Request: fold
Amino acid sequence: MANIDDHTSECSEINAVDGCTTLQQLWSCTFIHWSLIDIFIYFTHKFITIPPPEWIQACHRNGVSCFGTIVVEEWAKYDDDGGQQIDGKQFLDKILANNDLIDRFIDALINIQSFYRFDGWLLNIETSIDLDKISRMKYLIQRLKFKMKSTFSDNEDTQIIWYDSVTRTGKLEWQNELNDMNETFFEDSDAIFLNYTWKNENLVNSRNKACEYRRQYDCYVGVDCYGRGCFGGGGLDGTWKAIEKILDNNLSVAIFAPGWTHESKICSDDLFIRHSNNDDGDERHDNCQMPYWKLIQSTANIYSMEDEFEFWSRIAINGRLLEICEKLLTTLPLQTCFNIGHGYGYYQYGNRIESKPWLNFHHHDLQTSLFIEKNEWKNDYYRLSISYDQPYNGGSSLLIDLYNIIQQPLIPKPITLFRTHIPIDDSMKFRYRFVYKFHQNNYDNKKWLQENLKIRTIINYFHRNSEMGDDNYSAIIIESDGWYIRKPEEEILDDDNNMIRKSFSSIHSIINDWHLIEICIDFHDNFNEIILTKFQIEPYILGEMMLENFSSKIFFGEFYFDKFFQ
Reply:
């Protein structure tokens, strides 16, 4: 799935490389749902858009490709060599004047991509093209694709995606499907991004045409989160319906403008905004005349991160994106401090070393996949969220609010942090580190928590026994006092027989009220090949229950798992 985000570009107004800002709603310029997307396209309406280094780094850290954009719009104005304003068609005519100019343009694009190290381009040409220049447009696509593949041969993710806007005759006419009128550009590029005002028959036509090339997953069907002429109507209730329909036709999805979750709070139906600090509420401002950061500031009291989670939860579950398209992490290490690249202060090992709000996506960590299914992050027993109150490193941590502890001593199911497909065959020694802290104002309750509330980590894996030849699924259970292997459920007779206790070396220390558990695991005597499939955490009660019910908070400050190197 491709994510075409045009709200992040506005954040460049406040996303300085040094990370300094005074904004109070910093999360409005972030993204954390990386496990649901394969490509992140940094989109603006400017001619050439280069993704900022911090966004490129965040994408790559989370296993996602990052693309820039090349946009020429017929209605836009561009400067020619003489400083005069010309329209988009005239501007494109100059680029396509001859093959030498096209080659120079391509060389410049390759140099930009090489310097910033992003992965590809969305080519968005929304202007008519003279029929005698169609061959040159095709030459541009073909040559750019060739130069990218040869220059970045070690990057299998490098691609050029063509937007469905121009026909083979040069007419500016969005097809909303892959057909005879635009397939020539599909042939030349790596993929096509179809316009979003499609109907069901367009999906069927696109699937049939793409199957002729055996490239149906190179056909990205557009979904506008604002619902402008889009199936389902966009927004919270409609975006997932369009995605479900696309996936039913075995095509790929291109989500356009997911910043809707933020910007819908900025604009009312008449596209005006009210200042949140205006007591009488009568003053209105046209949103086109107000800087983006002012808009964000003025809506500080009406935006909630839960809006973002709810939106992506519906896409993932109702739209079946999680079932069909979730991306699995494939390499070690897995390391995160649950930092989303901003905060109200900066922390190191639980110590606050800076008190000012900050925003710097260079500090955006590997993100978990737990904010997908609503039942996993909010129910009657616990709630998961990002917290700025108790960071360990950076500006945020992962928070679990536990409710009704005496009534529900065990969380109903483990909480999934990472879904993976990590083959391990050259090393069977691993280092694991986990950092957490309790927050409880009542002294007796806090003391009881310290003694009785425990955290276990569950690492699900698959292994193939070379002697038996049988596929076998098991789990490594890590607790504060050691670790053991849990055999498959069908083999379970009772807990004592099933839990094979192993020797271990571990460290349990406390740093600034944070509990740090570090353990080394060696099970090379058990398997010759394993594939790690899921990393989970599970709070549980060990010991006598409290007489009175209460709630508590658990902050998670770091998760680390990697091969052990001596």
